[in-house]
Amino acid sequence: MYEIAIVGGGPAGASAAIFTAKAGVRTLLVDNGRSVTRRAWIKNHYGLPEITGPELVDRGKQQAAALGADVVTADVRDIRRDGEGFVLETDAGTFTARRVILATGPSTDLAERIGVHLVPGREPRIRMVAAVDPDGRTNIEGIWACGTVAGVSVHTIVTSGDGARVAINVLSEMNGARYVDHDVLPRDAAT
Ligand SMILES: Cc1cc2nc3c(=O)[nH]c(=O)nc-3n(C[C@H](O)[C@H](O)[C@H](O)COP(=O)(O)OP(=O)(O)OC[C@H]3O[C@@H](n4cnc5c(N)ncnc54)[C@H](O)[C@@H]3O)c2cc1C
Prior knowledge:
The model has no long low-confidence stretch (mean pLDDT 97). By secondary structure, the chain is α/β, with parallel strands linked by helices. The strands form 3 sheets. Strands 1, 2, 5, 6, 7, 8 and 11 form a 7-stranded mixed β-sheet that branches. A two-stranded antiparallel sheet has the order 3-4. A hairpin with an 8-residue loop joins strand 3 and strand 4 (51-52). It has one domain: FAD/NAD(P)-binding domain (3-Layer(bba) Sandwich), CATH 3.50.50. The longest helix has 20 residues, at 156-175. Helix content is 27%, strand content 27%. Helix 1 (11-22) packs parallel to helix 2 (53-66) and helix 1 (11-22) packs parallel to helix 4. Flavin-adenine dinucleotide binds next to helix 1, strand 2 and helix 4.
């Protein structure tokens, strides 16, 4: 059983997986490869003067995998509670996880199917989004949401930031204390 399963491997989901995998938490990142970001040519992402959408999405998944996440290409058809956690039904088999983070982009199909409450979106062309509390929790205990599907601004720096923010909130709940992930430069390298 995974500790955390993240559905959606765009900027939000992959960013969340980078934090949870780097924290040593057994992480599944499952994505069906239809990210809207693949159509983007990004020139406004802090620290990245210019990058194509496909490059950003592929890099995010590679970074999560390099940190220990299992990255699976599959379509999640259903999520149902099972004892301590959840069973994820996909077109590539079933997976189990204690917690789930939804990062499905503009698509609320899965969220609606599993009973996550939806509210009207406020971003252009985003009709409905998952109702979340300030930390990213949905109405279903153990299921969180981040990025576009959670109603944030439709920009990669914001959705990837929200993925990280919600992952940190999940890790903090697991640890019972606020989680911080800092790596420090050796003194002589700091300028
Ligand atoms: C044409 C275009 C140009 C853009 N240009 C810019 C720009 O210049 N700068 C900028 O900052 N932003 C730009 N954006 C916006 C940016 O791509 C999005 O705002 C944002 O980053 C989306 O991130 P996300 O992770 O929330 O969603 P997505 O990137 O859409 O990722 C969600 C992922 O979840 C997957 N998924 C959904 N449901 C399931 C399921 N049931 N099972 C498995 N996987 C599932 C999807 O296939 C997708 O891969 C642009 C968008 C478009 C469409």
